[in-house]
Structures are given as C-alpha cells and as structure tokens.
C-alpha cells in the first residue's frame, strides 16, 4: 500500500496559475503516462475523502503496478484544475462542474477549458443539503435573506449549486453574508451559532450531518417546485428527494436538487490500459465499499450526468465490452 493524505494549497493560487497557462491545453508536463496516481478527493467531513481512500485501496489491489495516493482537497474545481496542470491524475467532481470545466465556463478556474480530462464513471447522486438550527426560526430558503450562510469551500461544486439555489430564491449576493468554508467547519460554526445556515452538496446520508444532529437540533430546508424549476433551468442540477430514512431527525422526504458525483482521469497521464483497469476494478469491487453510497455505484448508471465530458478511452473500451449504451 502507498496511500497517504495531503493538504493542498488554496484554489485562488490554482486559478492564478491556470490563468498564466492560458486556455489551450494542459500545462505542458502532462504528456507522459504514469501508474503512480494522485487522486484528488474533497474535505475530510464529506463523502469524497473516505470514498477516495476506499477506492484507492481497491485500485491498488486490482490494477497491477498501480499506486494511488489519495489527497484531501477543495473538491471538484480544484481536482479538475490539478489534473489540467498535470499534478494529479484522478479526481472526484460533480457532473455539472465537470461539464462547465470542459466548456471553459467555470469561474473558479478563470474560464480555462479543461481539455485533458476523461470521464470514468458517474458514481451516485449528490443532494443539496440546506441545514439550519431547529431554533433559528428559518422555515424556508426565502428566509435566508439577511443571514450568514456557509456556501461551500473555494473550488467546490457546492458553491455553484449554492449560488443557483439562492438566485432561484431571489436572494442576491448583497442580501446575505457568505462564509467560504468546508463542510466540517461549517457544521461546527452552525452548532456554535456563528452562522445561520450551511448549504452543501454531498452524498446521502453524510456522516458530518449525522454527527451534527447528534448534538444539535437541526432542520433540513426543502425547496418548492417553483424554486426547483428555476434551479434546473439555470444549472446542471435536477429535482431529488432526500429520503426520510436518511437521517434520524427527518419525519418526511425533503425535496431538493441533485447532481452526480463522478470520477474522472487525465487523458494525458493515465493510459488507456490503466483507465480500463480502474473502470473494471471500480464496478467489479464496488461491493467492497463500506460507505452507504457504495451500493449506488453500478455500471448501468455510469453515464448519468456525462453531458459534454469526453469518455476516457480506457473507460470507453470497458463500457463497449460490457454493452453499456454510450452518449
């Protein structure tokens, strides 16, 4: 095993370096393939980081000659940016963020077209969780006007969905105070009444919320149909219900929106054979994932959210062999 944790620099520095690289192609050092893979995940309180650790183990044990170092990160945009620069080779990303990135429409990456990333698979739906304290008096998203809200970490796909939710609720940037932080920090701040709400896009259920609810009375805000329709029209998200059995404090399903967590790889540094092996190992050993989202990882749903993101040639080879319909 050669799995280790790393904490990376802020997304602001990444955006500056991407800008310096220009918008045509990778950063220049991504031409050689490697089997020593760095895997960008997310914050330690979400689903990406522990899932990345489990997948890293699966990949190392089942793709011959491959080592996988999984790293903590700011998630989607940072992972894509690091792959573009040739620093990392694998990464988790929200499907909407990946689609914006390949089209050069991701503000976090300064509009750079990420043209060296290939789709491996959609993994599971990620639901927007809008969390407030039970004693806050906040009953709806519209009540968040004038409040202090955690809207996601810099470089995360959560920020884009948070913006879409608040825009759809007619809450402009001047109508609230944003707190740019990761999910773990935001739950601590909510418990301590340092913020009024936190919005995060994560797999359901997420341990961070379960832990928060064990010590603090909280509520999940639902979205009405009008707000949901506006979000769907202006983002890559779609309507989704958080099931009542996801968290002990829920009494009924909570309507919200969802995107898809996906796995992508460098098309410069991850060879077709390696990507084929990664894709095969992902689906043949998904039953070894101990997290709840593991049971949602199936090849039949692997194309959900792919949109304009090109398939990695190795993944495409696997899906063609398995008879999966491709876009």
UniProtKB/TrEMBL annotation:
<protein>
    <recommendedName>
        <fullName>TRAP transporter solute receptor, TAXI family</fullName>
    </recommendedName>
</protein>
<keyword id="KW-0732">Signal</keyword>
<dbReference type="InterPro" id="IPR011852">
    <property type="entry name" value="TRAP_TAXI"/>
</dbReference>
<feature type="signal peptide">
    <location>
        <begin position="1"/>
        <end position="22"/>
    </location>
</feature>
<dbReference type="Pfam" id="PF16868">
    <property type="entry name" value="NMT1_3"/>
</dbReference>
